[in-house]
Design the sequence.
């Protein structure tokens, strides 16, 4: 953990996490996104402060694929009008490598139509619009996602 890392702060509770932790494995954490990528967008990140896939330990890497598949399945199951589930690696802040995290995002028909694009175009439009999901809706979906992710 590092003092100036938001991802580490969300893990250790020094930064508020809407919806609370969803799942913690031996090496990974799953949380709802705190950004404008829409309701049901989850973050899968190593518990250890790591800035690149190349720095993952063997056990971290071995756990990653199955966890991303499990998280993607949960997102699809709990998201209405989901056309696709995007999984993207992000690890930059101000052009400096930051805490590695995978964004697991439902690509909803309504969002694609509203923003007139999909994939990176959709994500860019959502960041430009900068609309955060309603806090009560985040809490509600996190209850369902936490229950779904608890099932092996």
Sequence:
């Amino acid at each position: 953990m590092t003092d100036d890392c938001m991802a580490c702060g969300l893990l250790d509770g020094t930064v508020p996490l809407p919806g609370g932790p969803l799942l913690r494995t031996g090496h990974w954490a799953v949380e709802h996104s705190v950004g404008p990528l829409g309701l049901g967008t989850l973050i899968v990140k190593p518990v250890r402060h790591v800035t690149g896939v190349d720095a993952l330990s063997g056990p971290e890497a071995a756990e990653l694929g199955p966890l991303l598949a499990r998280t993607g399945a949960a997102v699809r199951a709990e998201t209405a009008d989901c056309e696709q589930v995007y999984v993207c690696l992000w690890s930059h802040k101000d052009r400096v490598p930051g805490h590695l995290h995978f964004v697991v995002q439902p690509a909803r028909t309504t969002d694609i139509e509203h923003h007139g694009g999909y994939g990176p175009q959709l994500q860019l439009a959502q960041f430009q619009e900068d609309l955060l999901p309603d806090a009560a809706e985040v809490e509600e979906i996190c209850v369902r996602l936490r229950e779904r992710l608890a099932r092996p």
Notes: The two ends are 28 Å apart (CA to CA). The CA atoms of residues 91 and 152 lie 28 Å apart. The mean pLDDT is 95.
